[in-house]
Design a protein that fits this description.
CATH class: Mainly Alpha
Number of strands: 0
Largest sheet: none
Number of domains: 1
Order of helices and strands: HHHHHHHHH
Number of helices: 9
Structural class: mainly alpha
CATH topology: Lysozyme
CATH architecture: Orthogonal Bundle
Strand content: under 5%
Helix content: 55-70%
Shape: globular
Distance between the termini: 77 Å
């Protein structure tokens, strides 16, 4: 009877251990489901950019940009993939078109890229993309929201919005005129740049008003 009791106790212990392992597995699976999207959207692109952090920082600073903003744009545009290519023909980390890249190379006094494949080079892509951002900043008087809107929707459209309603603040202008994709792009880039800086992203001085996360644009029904 003594041996039978030990066998019974051993069986209970094994079942208890199996139950605990099952519960642990369910917790792991639940966390994976809960945070998998976050890992795909946030952590993986940051990990991909680790190899070009120095080039990104140098190109951003040379163009007068906060590196965390450029990093946020690269994550939003290409998920940190230097070989990314959109259906519209935008290429590389900062999703440049060849015509834009050629114009920026001429402004910088660099040899113009001859083929779209040249823009897969992350160093060249970052340098030309940061110069394009500098030109947009000049055109839109340093207004970050308008620069980001122009990067996504095109500077001609944003200039037209300003001509039609010059009295509106940039946030209101974008809210009123920009398509949903552009409003989402501006929101995500600004908030991601803030997180990258304040959660230990690239060392740089963000705009002073970013002591708290940038406010989201108000939603509208399209």
């Amino acid at each position: 009877m003594e041996g039978a009791g030990e066998s019974l106790d051993g069986g209970k212990h094994r079942r208890s251990l199996q139950l605990r392992l099952l519960l642990f597995g369910l917790v792991v699976v639940g966390n994976a489901l809960q945070y998998g999207d976050w890992l795909w959207r946030e952590a993986l692109p940051v990990w991909r950019l680790r190899a070009v952090v120095s080039e990104l920082r140098r190109s951003a600073v040379e163009a007068g940009w906060t590196p965390s903003i450029v990093r946020a744009i690269a994550i939003e545009e290409s998920k940190g993939r230097s070989r990314a290519r959109s259906s519209a023909g935008a290429i590389g980390l900062l999703q440049l078109r060849l015509t834009t890249a050629v114009e920026m190379a001429e402004l910088l006094g660099l040899p113009a890229p001859e083929a779209e494949e040249d823009l897969y080079d992350p160093t060249l892509n970052l340098r030309l993309g940061c110069e394009y951002l500098r030109q947009l900043r000049r055109r839109f008087d340093g207004d970050l929201r308008l620069v980001l809107a122009a990067y996504n929707a095109g500077p001609t459209r944003v200039s037209r919005w300003r001509r039609e309603s010059p009295e509106l603040a940039s946030a209101v202008l974008i809210q009123r005129f920009a398509p949903r994709e552009t409003r989402a792009f501006v929101d995500r880039v600004m908030r991601r740049a803030w997180r990258l800086r304040h959660l230990g992203g690239l060392p740089a001085a963000d705009p002073p008003e970013w002591r708290s996360p940038p406010a989201r644009l108000e939603r509208r029904s399209d």
